[in-house]
Structure formats: structure tokens, C-alpha cells
Amino acid sequence: MRYKNLLLVVLAVIFCLAMAASSPAQEKSLAATPPMGWNSWNHFAEKVDARTIREQADAMVASGMKDAGYVYINIDDTWEDKRDAQGNIQPNEKFRDIKALADYVHGKGLKLGIYSSPGPKTCAGFEGSLGHEEQDAQSYANWGIDYLKYDWCQSNRSVEDMKAAYTKMRDALKKTGRPIVFSLCQYGLGNVWEWGASVGGNLWRTTGDIEDNYESMAKIGFGQSGHEKYAGPGHWNDPDMLEVGNGGMNEDEYRTHFSLWCLLAAPLMAGNDLSKMTPYTQDMLTNREVLAVDQDALGKQGYPVVQEGPFEVWMKPMADGSTVVGLFNRSKEADKMTVNFSHIGVTGEAAIRDLWLKKDLGRFREKYNAYVPGHGVVLVRIKAN
Ligand code: GLA
What we know:
Blueprint: H1 2-30, E1 36-39, H2 41-44, H3 50-62, H4 65-68, E2 72-74, E3 80-83, E4 89-91, H5 98-107, E5 111-116, H6 133-143, E6 147-151, H7 159-176, E7 181-185, E8 203-205, H8 214-222, E9 236-238, H9 251-263, E10 268-270, H10 279-285, H11 288-294, E11 303-308, E12 311-317, E13 323-329, E14 335-340, E15 349-354, E16 359-365, E17 367-372, E18 377-384
Parallel strand pairs: 1-2, 1-10, 2-5, 5-6, 6-7, 7-8, 8-9
Antiparallel strand pairs: 3-4, 11-12, 12-13, 13-18, 14-17, 15-16, 15-18
Helix pairs in contact: 3-5, 6-7, 8-9, 9-11
The structure holds alpha-D-galactopyranose.
Alpha-D-galactopyranose binds next to loops.
């Protein structure tokens, strides 16, 4: 009898240890590399509806983006209606049946994301989740939602309030038993990078909203230095969604935008109309060698090694021991730039490949020089012997 009890205790201990070991790993595997997908806000804002979502899912497959690794189709603000008599959140007339939409998106091999706020109202003034966190999380799970952007949209509240609100939704999502990526959006308030992971965030916005112009994009992108030690598999800094293809920047500027976001190991949420892409935009969003920089298994966020006037050199260490380097020229005129190997820890000879030209450039010692267009970038992968 005593042995039987002992055996039960040993089995219980093994079970508890296994549970403890498996749960963080499961959360991590939700966003082991930065999430990739599309979000409705930057292009469609309040005009998004169910038909748009279906069209974007179709286009994500047809354009080759799905094959390149994009998976989330995310509905942003303005889908919400009032609650029913039991307090369940209802989709408005633009959406009606989110479960049917999720089935459609899942049928394409993609995943569906949704949006809410911890306060009484969302940023666009629609119904928020305050006081209904568990109920809303359960609705999302019942519908088949895979990703939640939880957007603060409140003023005059303390960092402790924010932590409590995000923890509440983290727990509510967990209780549903459905894996749902948790995207924090509170614009970097209270140094969220220091605590975003501890309240369950798989990603957290580090800044205010991006706009489709070079100044806004460059201010955000080049301003990410210093946050790199907080990013890693399962939890990422989010410098906001992509504007690539929306028309407010020229080709060099969009190449800078995309290169920088990939060097930053940023979540890649396309923000354009995928059903109407130019070949240039499509090639950019599906460039495998550049996407591999963002999605590298090591999960290191890149950082600057040189910031001199308008010239910035950023590097990102890669899992295979190579280093990806972006030479960014923030002035309007083309100029010659140099990466010194001593700045990126490379000694001896190294092979260099241009990731936008998809071309081996040869072997180099000590440094590499390139002409960089105004507002442009040269992105290279450097592999020492
Ligand atoms: C905030 C967010 C945006 C978008 C809008 C929607 O501004 O930062 O990304 O979600 O709200 O209202």
C-alpha cells in the first residue's frame, strides 16, 4: 500500500514537471519567429469588411505570399457591434459571421486575427472588452480566431493599470485553451519592452502609429536602437505594420522600410491591398533572402554599429554565423558608404552577397564599399571563413 502511494506521488510530480516544462514552450512556439501576415488598418481603416478579408486571403495565396511565409489575415478596428442580452460581443453588419470568415481563411491554410481594446471603447470608438474579457476571449476561440491585437486607446492610466489589463486578457485567452497570438498595442508607453513578455505579449508596439511617408517610417525604424535585448523567440518588439505598396514612398524608400524591419526582426504585417500589387511590391514582400533575415531562427534583433550624420550601418547576427548588414543613406543624394569589418566583428576574408540583387559580390577583406541611393539601402550578407 505504501509503495502504491509513493508511486502515485512520483507520477504526480512527473506530471507537474512535464506540464511546467511544456507550457512556456507552447507559448514560445506561437511566435518562435516574428509573426508574418496582413492587417486591414493601414490601407482600408474603417472600410474593412468581410468581403475585403476574403479577397485579401485569396490574394495572399495567389501572390505567393503564403508560400513565402505570411500566414495571418488580421481584422483591425471597426468590426464590432453592441453586445447581445447575454453580453456577447456581436460583429457589425460589415462582418456578420466571423466564424464563417475564419472557416474560409482556414480553408486557405491561413489564420485569422482580430482586434479589441482593454477599455470601454476601441480607438475608433467601437465596443471594447472592459468587464467582458473572458467572454470575449471565449467568443474569439469559438469563432476560430488565432491572433488578437489588444489596443490600449485610453489616456491617464498608470503602467500598473496597463499591466493588469493585459494580464487579465492573457489569462482569459489562456483559459480558452486555444493558441492565440497576443499582440500588445499601447505605443511603447511605460517602456513596454521591459515588461511586455511578462504579461503574455508575443509582440508589443514600441511606437505611435506609422504613416506612409519616409519621415515617419525612418523616425520609427531608426529609432529602435536599444530595444534589441528585449526581443527573442516568442516575444518581439513591434515598430508597427508595413506601409510597403501603399504609395506614399518611392521604391528606394520602401526598400529601406522593408530592409530595416527585417534587420529589426520585426513582425511583418503587410498593410497594403494585396489584390492590387505592382510587381515591384510583390517581389519585395516575397523576397526569400530578405525574409530569411527577419525569420532567422536565432531571433536576434539588429542594431546600429555606425550612426554618422545621414549614414547608418546596422547589423544582425544570423544563426549560421553570418552577419547581415544594412548600409542606409538617410540623405536625399546618393553617396558612397563603407562597412568596416572591424565594426561587425569579422576578421580575415569574407564572402559577400547582395540580398536585393540576389547576387554574390565576391570575397573581401577589411571593408566593403557601396554606392547607396538617397533614402536607400544596400543589404548584404557577410560570411567570414
Ligand atoms: C490605433 C492603433 C492602430 C489602429 C487604430 C485603430 O491608432 O495604433 O494601429 O489599430 O488604433 O483604431
